[in-house]
Design brief:
With 85 residues, the protein is mainly alpha-helical. The chain contains two helices and no strands. The protein is elongated. The two termini are 18 Å apart. It holds the Pfam family zf-Tim10_DDP.
Length: 85
């Protein structure tokens, strides 16, 4: 990265930020789709039932913890790979 000029560094940073936003939106979309499908069953009311709300809270918490754990493992493996070089 030190070999890039200022403009190239800015372009690179912008690409990284765009990728991060895209990844975040993909994660959020997956979370919404999965938890909605698993938890929301009653369409006779505008409001969620207490059971559905509880399910959604647990589902989203579990999904985010899983995603965080996968990210940590990826970082650990990446660090181990970099040490081998």
């Amino acid at each position: 990265m030190d070999q890039l000029n200022n403009r190239e560094q800015q372009e690179f940073q912008q690409l990284v930020e765009q990728k991060q936003m895209k990844d975040f939106m993909r994660l959020y979309s997956s979370l919404v789709q999965r938890c909605f499908t698993d938890c929301v069953n009653d369409f006779t009311s505008k409001a969620l039932s207490s059971r559905e709300e509880s399910c959604l809270e647990k589902c989203s918490e579990k999904f985010l913890k899983h995603s965080e754990r996968v990210g940590q493992r990826f970082q650990e493996q990446n660090a181990a790979l970099m040490q081998k070089r």
